[in-house]
TrEMBL record:
<dbReference type="Pfam" id="PF13354">
    <property type="entry name" value="Beta-lactamase2"/>
</dbReference>
<dbReference type="InterPro" id="IPR000871">
    <property type="entry name" value="Beta-lactam_class-A"/>
</dbReference>
<dbReference type="InterPro" id="IPR012338">
    <property type="entry name" value="Beta-lactam/transpept-like"/>
</dbReference>
<dbReference type="InterPro" id="IPR045155">
    <property type="entry name" value="Beta-lactam_cat"/>
</dbReference>
<protein>
    <submittedName>
        <fullName>Beta-lactamase class A</fullName>
    </submittedName>
</protein>
<feature type="domain" description="Beta-lactamase class A catalytic">
    <location>
        <begin position="11"/>
        <end position="259"/>
    </location>
</feature>
Length: 296
């Protein structure tokens, strides 16, 4: 039997920020199970695939890149795995199972598009080009994403970081663009999606154990939990005026609860300030989970 609690329009589409990253890691672990990769396979950080913020230097194995993707929300580690899996492939798989969810671009591609650095792929009107692509057929959105990903690989990460900061603090910023380039979903669908993804369904036992363990390192859980659980996997995302939190808890009686919190267009702007809201929001989420767990 399914029960739910909701606040706001749970069928509205919101940007996910980094909450999409478990989809990338689970996909890579499926490739490990299929023999296309090993957890020990080394993948290199390059100027082309380096995204914003901290990044893993040199070559790192798949296990370490996956750990960094979840535990540190490392954008470069996520992009390296995303490119290894295939952005087009992941986008099609997500759409086939969860039609309200879109994962099209690597993080570097969406940040570079927002910063206005991909004119070679979009022309002089970034917003107009992406608005037109978003209203077109899914295959056209995929072709646009492929152009963005390729073009973004020519943008140096330090240039991207500086330009992106200017964009968010300048007059060109528009929240409309978030929905065209970032991964998106609805709160309702992403909660259902999380139940499947966090469970590690479809993975072999050993790989599933590694994946589930990694998801327990993601942000964020209460420092002193009031809810008794046997498992709590989580992932957060933040950006300019955006905070997202998702996760799954397993209860001692065998039930599982999933949650999705999507906050877009907050009055708080910078990601660092948005992240100060995480602890009180997690406390609020736990209160709702306690209510749901005790529902008859």
């Amino acid at each position: 039997m399914q029960r739910s609690l909701s606040l706001g329009d749970v069928d509205a589409v919101f940007p996910l920020a980094s909450s999409f990253k478990p989809l990338v890691v689970r996909g890579i672990f499926r490739d490990v199970d299929a023999g296309r990769l090993k957890l020990t396979t080394k993948l290199a950080t390059t100027e082309a695939n380096r995204s914003i913020e901290r990044y893993p230097k040199g070559s790192n194995d798949v296990r370490e890149l996956a750990r960094r993707t979840i535990a540190l929300s490392d954008n470069t580690a996520s992009d390296i795995l995303h490119l290894a899996y295939g952005p087009d492939r992941l986008a099609r798989e997500v759409r086939a199972k969860w039609p309200c969810t879109a994962v099209l671009n690597t993080t570097k591609a969406w940040w570079a598009a927002q910063a206005g650095l991909l004119g070679t792929a979009l022309g002089p009107d970034t917003l107009g080009a992406l608005r037109a692509a978003a209203s077109g057929p899914f295959d056209e959105r995929l072709r646009t994403a492929a152009r963005l990903i390729t073009a973004s690989q020519r943008v140096p990460a330090p240039v991207l970081e500086r330009t992106l900061d200017d964009y968010f603090h300048g007059p060109a910023y528009t929240s409309e663009l978030d929905l065209y380039v970032q991964p998106t979903s609805t709160a309702r669908e992403f909660a259902h999606l999380s139940l499947q993804v966090y469970s590690g369904s479809g993975l072999k036992a050993a790989t599933r154990a590694v994946f589930r363990g990694m998801m327990q390192t993601g942000c964020c859980r209460p420092k002193t939990p009031r809810l008794t659980t046997t498992y709590w996997g989580a992932k957060a995302g933040s950006g300019w005026r955006i905070l997202t939190l998702s996760g799954v808890v397993d209860l001692p009686d065998g039930r599982s609860l999933a949650y999705t919190y999507l906050n877009d267009q907050s009055a708080v702007t910078d990601a660092e300030d948005m992240e100060l809201q995480i602890r009180p929001v997690v406390t609020w989420i736990e209160t709702q989970l306690i209510t749901l767990a005790g529902a008859p």
